[in-house]
Amino acid sequence: MPQLSVRKKQDYQERYTIRIQGGKAGLVEATTKMDISEFRLFATVLTMILPDDEDFTEYEIRIPDIIKLFDLNRNGKYYEAFKDAALRLMDRKFVVYEQKEDGKEYKTTIPLSIQTSEPVLVGEQNRIRLQFHPKLKPYLLDLQREYLTVDIRNITEIQSHYSVKLYFVLKHQQRLGNKKVRYDVSRLRQILAIEEHEYPLYGSLKQKVFQKGIEDINKYTDLEITKIEEHKHVRSVVAITFHLNPKERQLEVKSQKPQRQVLKSSGGKVVVTNNIEPQRLAEDTTVEVLPQKNELFEEIYLLVKPYKISKKTVYAWINEFPKEQVLLGVNYVIEKLRVGEKIQNIGGYMNQMVNTPSLYENYKESQQKKEERSLKLQTETNLKIQSAAIEKEKAQFNESYFKAQNEFYKKLINENVINSIIKYLMEENAKEKPSLVVAMSYEQLMKVSGGKIDKNTFEKAMDEAGFTFTTFVSEWIETNFPQEVSQFKEPFKVEAAFLGIDI
């Protein structure tokens, strides 16, 4: 088995985006027991999965990476907490409820990881390596429609794993375009992995979980829950409707190691430096920190530059979405403009299309159907060509076989055979109701021979009298000379069987 390559978080410090499959049968609403330390470790690894990855690798996270990503204090307790969390992740599972091909709902359990590792040397035990279970590929890699993309900086300040999970669930609904969404309380318990004995009274569940989650989401994230409605059956609250509203949130970029960066001043002057000291710039200077350019950035920015799309937006696109999704969204809008459609806010609409996974998924689905149709057409064409070739081979075989058969029968035919055949035809034809084959064979023989039948005229009849007569003669000879006929057919049997011909 080939050795897996190791991907290190320290090489991907700029990545804050995670992508996971949504929907009832996805990880967003899957039941899993994770405390906040376990979730932070899990989320850190998710930021290392790239949009174009086709398979998992081995992921290495240093505890300082997690502390930095979630803006935690450098406290010794976190080192032990995350080391313990890594070991517990080995036992963590996701439970999804999905409909199988028989139309029935199944509860499917999927392990999170297949292996966690840490260095043996004490001085190096601040690193953790983790490998995801291959069964998670459809939920983290081969993403279909309804997947959720989240910037992890929205949850760095949330301390409750219930609040984090609730944010993911509601954010996904908001990204689907839902301004309000209703969940049964029992379903929310299932999603949040809250057992019946935990917060058995709705009042405590509401205060400790739902209200706390709403406060955290409204305070720290890019989502706002404007109000909730409680739905009762008799006197018990059985469901909750959340009213959702997106909100802008300025996400801070954590400071990294000194690197080559471009500073754009409002006066148009460009300063390139390896050590940024914003406090030394003029007060009216606007600073934009841009990553280094690459070919993909140049390709996309060249397309959108005429529509006043900022470089920062393009960087966000290529960091968050697969190349194909970005190009599809951009070209979708450009094509609308090309055919004369009026779009009031081109930049906003283009950003919306790039951020619409369903556009990409529908495109992939249509491409897949197109490929399937093309493959089906090609297969049908190949079958027709193959069938035509076989039919041609059959025709050639039949022609050569019947020619050889005719010559073989002529060699068997002598005065006695001819007399026996004529006698049989005459006797059968003299009956009140002779068979059609006998009547036609006798008529054809008389017509070709002119009534004078000898070996020459009989052979002439075999060549010219037609299919009915030759068929009759063949059957008569096969009945009366079975051994000789069997020996004649033997060399032809293999090819006849290959072509599906019965001789």
UniProtKB/TrEMBL annotation:
InterPro entries: Initiator_Rep_WH1, WH-like_DNA-bd_sf, WH_DNA-bd_sf. It holds the Pfam family Rep3_C. Keywords: Plasmid. Residues 27-170 form the Initiator Rep protein WH1 domain. Belongs to the initiator RepB protein family. This is Initiator RepB protein. It comes from Emticicia oligotrophica (strain DSM 17448 / CIP 109782 / MTCC 6937 / GPTSA100-15).
